[in-house]
TrEMBL record:
Single GO molecular function: beta-N-acetylglucosaminidase activity
SUPFAM superfamilies named in the record: (Trans)glycosidases (SSF51445)
Biological process terms in GO annotation: glycoprotein metabolic process
Protein known as: OGA GlcNAcase
Protein encoded by which gene: Mgea5_1
Top-level taxon: Eukaryota
InterPro entries listed in its UniProt record: GH, Glycosyl_Hydrolase_84, O-GlcNAcase_cat
Segments forming domain GH84: 1-150
UniProt xrefs under Pfam families: NAGidase
Length: 204
């Protein structure tokens, strides 16, 4: 029925999106969802070019970065992805994901993401450790990073993404505004306080 997998996926996604009344949040995860899965590169991938052309503009596209689990995310890569998809990507960040090896737990601060990155994104999702309690530091430091990306805004809200995009590159978070080490120390302080508070609760 369809000349390519990409056209089939885009057609089905578009139909579902329209059937649901074009909701404000509708996410599509492409088969090529990171650079290492693209041949030869994101910008030259026939699959991604078709997705970018055929997928309705209101549909968000998920991207994990250079790899499935990306140690770093750069503005240059996101520009390339935005160009081929014809929309800013939504990062599905697997930095802390441990479902592929549950013997490991990731407790470090959120890091390896270039300053000013949020202006290149439509959104960001964090795929956490499978162990619930192990995610205090990842989520806490992600919050610190996000506040720095908002340029010091004390109360980011659901319009935060649009606010960052409106600031533009020159007014985004400056180099050095987010310190992973300082974010880690803040998270550890709050985590210890949370643990101490839980220890005093009846039945603990």
């Amino acid at each position: 029925v369809f000349p390519s997998l990409a056209q089939a996926q885009a057609s089905v996604a578009n139909e579902v999106y329209q059937e649901l009344g074009q909701p404000s949040v509708f996410l599509f995860c492409p088969t090529e969802y990171c650079s290492s899965l693209c041949s030869p590169s994101p910008s030259q991938s026939c699959y991604l070019q078709t997705i970018g052309q055929e997928l309705l503009p209101g549909i968000g596209v998920i991207w994990t970065g250079p790899k499935v689990v990306s140690q770093e995310l750069s503005a240059v890569l996101l520009e390339e992805v935005e160009g081929v998809l014809r929309r800013r990507p939504i990062i599905w960040d697997n930095l802390y994901a441990n479902d592929y090896d549950c013997r490991r737990v990731f407790l470090g601060p959120y890091m390896g993401r270039a300053p000013g990155l949020m202006s290149r994104l439509q959104g960001l999702l964090l795929n956490p450790n499978c162990e619930l309690q192990a995610n205090f530091i990842p989520i806490h430091t992600l919050g610190t990073w996000f506040r720095s990306e908002l340029g010091g805004c004390a109360h980011p809200d659901h319009a935060g993404m649009e606010a960052v995009a409106a600031l533009g590159d020159s007014q985004g978070a400056q180099d050095g505004s987010y310190s992973p080490q300082e974010a880690l120390e803040l998270a550890l302080r709050d985590w210890v306080a949370e643990i101490n508070q839980q220890a005093l609760e009846p039945g603990r």
